[in-house]
Design brief:
Length: 216
C-alpha cells in the first residue's frame, strides 16, 4: 500500500517525459484515465495560451473582459483536470486490491462493487470538465487572436479525444456493476455529454479548419 501511494505521489511530481515513460511501463497507474485527463488539460491549456496572447491587444479591446473571464475559467478547468490524474490513480488502487481478495471470501463481491462505483467518479468528472473546456475553446475561437486559430483547433481535437477516452473508463466500470440503477445513471450522464459535446467539438473544429484552409 505504501509503495503504491509513493508511486502515485512520484508520478504527480514527474516531468512530462517521466509521466509518459511511466504510462508506457508495466505499471497499474497511470492508465487510460490519467491519459484522458492529461489530454483534456493540454487542450484547455491551448485555450489559455490563445487568451494570453489576445489580452492587451487593441484589435481585441472590445472582447478583453470576455477573454479575461475565459482565462480564469480555463485555469480552473486545467487545474481540476490535472488533479483528476491523481484521483483516478487513487481510485484504481482499492479496486485492484478488491480483485485480489480470495474468491471464497464472502466480502469480495461487495468490496469490488463499492470500489468499482468509486472508480466511476474520476472519469465522469473528467468528462464534465472537458465539456467546459470545449465550450471555452469554442468561444475563444470566436473571440481570440486569429493568429492562433490553429491552436484553438488543436485544443478542440484534444478535448474531443479526452471526452471519448474518459467515457470508456466510465463504461468499463459500469458494465460490471450489480447495481444497475447506479450504472444506468452514470451511463446516461456520460451518454448525454458525448451526444452533446462530441458534435459541438467537431463543429467548432470544422469551422477552425475551414477558416484556416479557406474551405466553404
Amino acid at each position: 500500500m505504501q509503495e503504491r501511494t509513493y508511486m502515485i505521489d512520484k508520478m504527480m511530481r514527474a516531468s512530462f517525459p517521466d509521466f509518459v515513460n511511466v504510462l508506457a511501463a508495466k505499471e497499474p497507474v497511470p492508465g487510460g484515465g490519467g491519459a484522458a485527463a492529461l489530454a483534456g488539460a493540454l487542450g484547455i491549456a491551448l485555450c489559455s495560451m490563445v487568451g494570453n496572447y489576445t489580452t492587451g491587444k487593441k484589435t481585441y479591446a472590445s472582447v478583453e473582459p470576455d477573454i479575461r473571464r475565459m482565462l480564469d475559467q480555463a485555469q480552473a478547468v486545467r487545474k481540476r483536470l490535472l488533479s483528476l490524474i491523481h484521483e483516478d490513480a487513487e481510485a484504481f488502487m482499492p479496486l485492484s486490491r478488491a480483485y485480489a481478495i480470495p474468491k471464497e471470501n464472502p466480502t469480495r463481491a461487495e468490496t469490488i462493487e463499492q470500489a468499482t462505483k468509486r472508480a466511476c467518479d474520476a472519469p465522469l468528472e473528467m468528462m464534465r470538465q472537458v465539456c467546459k473546456a470545449i465550450d471555452l475553446l469554442d468561444e475563444m475561437g470566436q473571440k481570440g487572436s486569429r493568429m492562433l486559430l490553429s491552436d484553438v483547433g488543436c485544443g478542440l481535437y484534444l478535448c474531443r479525444a479526452a471526452l471519448e477516452a474518459a467515457s470508456l473508463n466510465v463504461f468499463v466500470n459500469t458494465k460490471t456493476l450489480a447495481d444497475r440503477e447506479f450504472a444506468q445513471t452514470a451511463e446516461a450522464e456520460a451518454d448525454q455529454m458525448l451526444s452533446t459535446y462530441v458534435p459541438r467539438a467537431e463543429k467548432s473544429a470544422a469551422i477552425v479548419y475551414g477558416r484556416i484552409r479557406e474551405v466553404d
